Amino acid sequence: MAAHGPLDHVVDHNTLEFAWWNGPSYQMEVHLPKILGLQITRFMVMEAVAALLMIAILIPVVQHIRRRPVSKGGFFNAFEAILLFIRDQVARPAIGGHGADKFLPFLWTAFFFVLFNNLLGSIPGGATATGNINVTGVLAVSTLGVVIWSGVKEYGVAGFFKNLVPSVDVPKPLNYAFWPLMFVIELLGLLIKHLVLAVRLFANMFAGHVVLAVILGFIVAAQGWLFYVVAPASIAGVVALSLLELFVAFLQAYIFTFLSALFIGASVHPH
Asked: What is the pLDDT of residues 100-139, one digit of tens each?
């Protein structure tokens, strides 16, 4: 059974929680099973839900766009606007021209997967899988794989690693001496950039939910007459911060996608 402290809602568990009458409490816990020896966790379920939401929403949206030259309906228009924004304001400027369009499936997938996982944490009983460093680490590794693959496809293996080092207008003897050192620095920089990509998303989502949990924890800690002062203030603060968290959910999905596009652009256009 999961603990019931402030950090309970930001760490992974092998249970799901639902707002339901359960005897003396209004919360019901469902223990998740093991499949082939692998323990299913709350974050795994949230990731699966996010993937199913993408399939259920984006496939009809794309089919609708294909059928109609001019999209109609607020729902379809909203998602079409997001898709076009990522194409025209993120992918093409960062990667360059219409050559960026071949990377759109990855960028669209990354954006909506991160967004849906961010938003699921705002639903009662849900959890934010992107508040786990393992999840954001896999997303960053996926971006790194696309970066390396696109650079190798464009310039070959040797050309990709050669392009990591910027050309410096120095005498050849100095260039021969500095090139290996610069190569090591640039290779480490490539890895560190993607590590930061993972840490940035994880830290923002984790920290936001910790703050919400701590503010709600003040209500439990308040005793006597202080409860009637702390409870309304805490609830008002949580409502305000929850609205901010909705904005942060979209912002972090955009930042992750934008930085991924920048890294891909630097790989296919190193200079």
From this structure: 899 999 999 999 999 999 998 888 777 889 989 999 999 9
List the alpha helices (DSSP H) in the chain.
42-67, 74-85, 104-120, 133-163, 172-221, 227-268
SS3 (DSSP) at 25: strand
Determine the Cα–Cα distance for residues 126 and 207; give it in Å rounded to an integer.
16
List of residues 6+ apart from 148 with CB closer than 8 A: 160, 267
Between CA 46 and CA 126 the distance in angstroms is 7
CA distance 50 to 44: 10
Whole-angstrom Cα distance, residue 172 to residue 168? 10
Of 92, 60, 95, nearest in space to 75 by CA = 60
Letter for the amino acid at 161? F
Question: Would you list the domain boundaries of the chain?
Answer: 47-54+90-268
In the block, tokens 């997001």 appear at 82
What type of residue sits at position 186?
E
How many Å apart are CA 245 and CA 218, to the nearest integer?
19
- Cα gap 50→47, rounded to integer Å: 5
- The 10 Å CB-count burial string (b at 16+, else e) for 161-170 is bebbbeeeee
Query: pTM for the whole thing?
Result: 0.87
User: Tell me, what DSSP letter sits at residue 124?
Assistant: T
